[in-house]
Amino acid sequence: MSVEGTTRDDAAEALPYGMPYQRETRYDPPTGLMDLQSKPLRPIRYYPDGTEGWLVTGHAEGRKVLADPRFATGERFTHSPTELPHVFVSISEQVPPGFFLFFDPPEHTRLRRKVTGVFTVKRMKDLEPRIADIVDAQIEALRAAGPGADLVREFALPVPSLVICEMLGVPYDDRAAFQANSANMLDLSLSVEDRNKAMAELFGYLMQLVPAKRADPGDDMLSVLAADPEIHDVEAAGIGLILLVAGHETTANMLALGTFALLEHPDQMAKLRDAPKLMPAAVEELLRYLTVAHNGIMRIAKEDAEIDGQLIKAGQHVTVVLQAANRDPHKYERPGELDLDRDAQGHMAFGHGVHQCVGQQLARVEMRIGFAKLFEAFPDLRLAVPSEEIPMRSDMAVYGVHTLPVEW
User: Which Pfam families match (predicted)?
Assistant: First the structure.
């Protein structure tokens, strides 16, 4: 029986309720989620009230939805694919001005254009020496902390935090406050009110910083935005909020979780040590295999839209599950294996379409340099505790590890 575009009670009763998110292993998506790939675009029932929406677990289907302008982000998201309110639900409740991730064209286009010039491949190449210096300094901090040190605290978190602070012009001494608020924004176990409070505090901090940059400008991005007559202060602060949170949360978790994964796959670690030229491909494969943005990207249909013969009705929520799409067997052979020799190009770890991560080139550079220098400095790097004792970030919008004690 077809349930395409219908909300009839008899059809709704047969629909899966929500998206499985509890993992059985550290690196693999939940088995129940992967079982849904038998139908890569399917109707599901959303929390909290069973409203019908859609779940996308296929790679090709996910790209179609994320590239289709009929599916919007500039709407109020009221339903979640899990019993934990999705991060899109909390942020969309009070989207700050300038937070262009939740705007649709043409407003999205206007604001995103202001930052794309900063994140070009060439500019990232020019930044490499400074990123290398930051990585070297944090490797020494890790070494000084001694065996048993937490790689998250000493290396994975400060590297991208320092980089994005320098790019934005945010004083690094303020990092403790913005890191705490960023984590709370993405903590799915907190109430929507608590997450909104964290976002408001971080936005308020940036609102104070923008006029200060105008009065005493530097060569950082906030100074450039503050001096732009087409950008209001509240928009500059909103842009800064996106970049500050996304600029360190995702990369920090990829550095830590990627290290953990390689330590648990010694054959792949040996392959990388023997052939350092594999690093660019290794980063792409780790991005595909781990997909730290594991709760999916949500959209709302602005109008009735047909995708692969399925009618998605105007107003329905659609969730594209990136971690499942990146394990789609129709796109990748043996998708459940970590294989650094794989051509993982085309993965959707950074999303797809007009909202694809604007800072993806920066993240790639940080990971390439970070992993290379870390493994060179510590050829005998290993876990300091049994792997099952590593606390995972299962209830966070960005997956990873809370701590990673290592020795050498």
Answer: p450
Six-digit token string for 291: 């997909």
Residue 4 in domain: no
**Residue 386: inside a domain:** yes
> Per-residue pLDDT for the chain (408 aa), expressed as one digit of tens each?
333 444 444 344 478 888 998 899 999 999 999 999 999 999 999 999 999 999 999 999 999 999 999 999 999 999 999 988 898 998 888 898 999 999 999 999 999 998 887 787 787 888 899 999 999 999 999 999 999 999 999 999 999 999 998 888 888 888 788 888 888 888 888 888 898 899 899 999 999 999 999 999 988 889 999 999 999 999 999 999 998 888 888 999 999 999 999 999 999 999 999 999 999 999 999 999 999 999 999 999 999 999 999 999 999 999 999 999 999 999 999 999 999 999 999 999 999 999 999 999 999 999 999 999 999 999 999 999 999 999 999 888 899 999 999 999
Q: Order of strands across the sheet with 51-56? A: 41-46, 51-56, 317-320, 297-301, 71-72
Is the distance from CB of 380 to CB of 357 less than 8 angstroms? Answer: no
CA–CA separation, 135 and 56 (whole Å): 37
Residue 173 tokens read as: 């001494």
The pairing of beta strand 310-312 with beta strand 305-307 = antiparallel
Number of domains in the chain: 1
CATH number at residue 388: 1.10.630.10
Using CB atoms within 10 A of its CB, is residue 271 exposed (0-12), middle (13-18) or buried (19+)?
Answer: middle
Domain annotation covers residue 3: no
Nearest to 15 by CA among 24, 39, 31: 39
Q: The domain containing residue 207 runs over which residues?
A: 9-407
Domain membership of residue 249 (yes or no) is: yes
Per-residue CA distances from 115 to 128, 160, 252 (Å): 19, 18, 21
Q: Which helix (H) or strand (E) holds 250?
A: helix 233-263
Q: What is the pTM of this model?
A: 0.91
